[in-house]
Specification:
Protein name: DUF3848 domain-containing protein
Oligomer: single chain
Strand content: under 5%
Organism: Desulfosporosinus metallidurans
Low-confidence stretches: none
Number of domains: 1
Order of helices and strands: HHHHHHH
């Protein structure tokens, strides 16, 4: 898969993930929305940053392995930064951490279509 295909495939997933989350948020009551404000803000921030695809192809290709890459990066972002304002270096660090440790494969559902034979999925 070339760079253009990787970006396009990831964009489709991010868009679908974001739309799915928005639909979920629209069903929440006001107090529930307030309680999830950090998650919502982090999701919007990560979505906005990733949709441009200006990050390492290795990171972007690795994110394709997950059904919900937006959730994977959002959760890492919250773990490392809370809902602070984004800086490109911070997102790059979150992406590096996800790809380097590869422990997200234990906590998030993989997308079998993007796992090449022989890579397998680690199980606890």
């Amino acid at each position: 898969m070339d760079h253009k295909d990787i970006k396009a495939e990831l964009w489709e997933k991010l868009e679908a993930n974001y739309i799915s989350l928005m639909r979920k948020w629209l069903k929440l009551k006001p107090l529930q929305l307030i309680e999830q404000a950090e998650e919502i803000a982090a999701t919007k921030l990560v979505y906005s940053e990733l949709k441009d695809g200006g990050y390492s192809m290795d990171y972007l290709e690795y994110l394709l392995r997950f059904k919900n890459p937006l959730e994977v990066v959002r959760d890492k972002w919250i773990e490392e930064n809370g809902s602070e304002m984004v800086h490109d270096d911070d997102i790059t660090h979150a992406l590096w951490s996800i790809a380097d440790k590869q422990d997200a494969e234990q906590d998030y559902e993989p997308d079998e279509a993007y796992i090449s034979p022989g890579q397998g999925v680690g199980m606890c």
